[in-house]
Design goal:
259 residues; mainly beta; UDP N-Acetylglucosamine Acyltransferase, domain 1; ten-stranded parallel β-sheet; 27% strand
Length: 259
């Protein structure tokens, strides 16, 4: 079905780039900027006001930015104050709460829920039904698979919020739970259904409940496939080293340009 742009509400205080397309029933609030060639599908809300909107007569919506060439699929809600980079994409019914920052070339799968004040780097892939609690952070090239969860309350319910962190290139398998304040290093692999209760150093394979460190991922051998980790040396689809290879990309100094 083609995007019709019917029954849409776009604030006069929003800035819409060139060649932006809208589906039906889209709402774009004040102080939203949408980059060139973005697509906002049916029933999306961009710049959803914060809670104070409903009782503060002086309320002003924070700036919300959606980067160029982004694709926001139907029923997604992006709250005010979010800053999202170019080439962003979502599945359906994604929620991104206020003041979240997401880098370039990131994707969020269907029913993914990102709470407020989250930081996500570049080229991250969050599959369907991922939950990221407030004040958590991800580095660059992080993959999180379905039903993985990052938590932030060490003694629920409490007033204490301690976000957890996942380092660059780390893979978080299905049904993993990361407890509050936990730091997972770079190039790690966290096995399915693990509960991460302590710091995980770089290049670690960890699995179990509670997760324990089994070995350096670089020592993993797969039958007939050699050493599958670090994974960037064998996987390039959608990554900036596609067509030239990861090692050549690093040698050219491109990795250092990603912030």
């Amino acid at each position: 079905m083609k995007l019709t742009g019917k029954n849409i509400s776009i604030s006069s205080r929003a800035k819409i780039g060139k060649n932006v397309q809208f589906g039906e029933n889209v709402v774009v609030y004040d102080n939203v900027e949408i980059g060139d060639s973005a697509i906002i599908c049916n029933d999306c809300v961009i710049g959803e006001p914060l809670a104070s909107y409903y009782d503060d007569p002086e309320y002003q919506n924070p700036l919300t930015i959606i980067g160029r060439n982004s694709l926001v699929r139907s029923h997604a809600i992006i709250y005010a104050g979010c800053m999202i980079g170019d080439e962003f994409s979502t599945g359906h019914r994604v929620t991104i709460r206020e003041n979240t920052i997401i880098g370039k070339n990131c994707s969020l799968g269907t029913l993914t829920d990102i709470q407020n004040n989250v930081r996500i780097g570049d080229y991250c892939r969050l599959h369907s039904n991922v939950h990221i609690s407030a004040q958590c952070s991800l580095g660059n090239y992080v993959f999180m698979y379905p039903f993985s969860v990052m938590t932030n309350d060490p003694f629920p319910p409490s007033e204490t919020i301690i976000g957890s962190h996942i380092g660059n290139y780390t893979q978080i398998a299905v049904h993993v739970v990361i407890l509050p304040g936990i730091h997972i290093g770079e190039h790690c692999l966290i096995g399915a259904s693990s509960v991460v209760t302590k710091k995980i150093p770089d290049y670690s394979l960890a699995t179990g409940n509670p997760a324990i460190i089994l070995r350096d991922v670089r020592k993993i051998r797969a039958l007939g496939k050699g050493h599958p980790y670090p994974w960037p040396q064998r996987f390039s689809r959608g990554m900036p080293w596609d067509k030239i290879g990861y090692d050549s990309w690093v040698e050219a100094g491109q990795e250092a340009k990603v912030e």
